[in-house]
Design goal:
single chain; about 140 residues; mainly alpha
Length: about 140
């Protein structure tokens, strides 16, 4: 698991990657710049209400912001989708090239989480089949 004590560093990195100053992000969060600085310096615990705003602002999940690691839910789903791709390749006797496999994985995962994180295996398999046909 990631190091939550490095949260301030992650906040700084995310802010800079978004091209925002401390004043600009503080304004977007509805707090003062000095209050925001406390979070980047790890001098205060980040309230859940601000964490949720940061998730929206950075288009990221709370787990990654807090720990610097991918969400266990997402990692588990990636493994499930990878197994389904393996099964598809075996059943249809095909093999995706590595870059195509990554594109299929990314598309299925993105569509999966846009619709519902518990999409069934058969729905994912249908999506894999459709993508394979497009990539042929």
């Amino acid at each position: 698991m990631g190091d939550i004590s490095a949260l301030g560093d992650r906040l700084s990195t995310l802010r800079k990657a978004a091209g925002l100053s401390q004043s600009e992000i503080a304004e977007k969060l509805g707090i003062s710049r000095s209050s925001y600085q406390y979070y980047e310096r790890n001098e205060r615990d980040l309230p859940a209400s601000l964490l949720l705003k940061l998730c929206e602002l950075f288009d990221d999940d709370a787990h990654r912001i807090l720990t610097g690691q991918p969400s266990p839910l997402i990692m588990r789903r990636i493994k499930e989708i990878s197994v389904l791709i393996d099964e598809y390749e075996e059943d249809v006797d095909v093999e995706f090239k590595p870059d195509a496999r990554l594109r299929v994985m990314a598309k299925v995962l993105r569509d999966d989480f846009r619709t519902h994180p518990s999409t069934t295996s058969s729905e994912v398999r249908d999506e894999i089949d459709s993508l394979y046909r497009m990539l042929k």
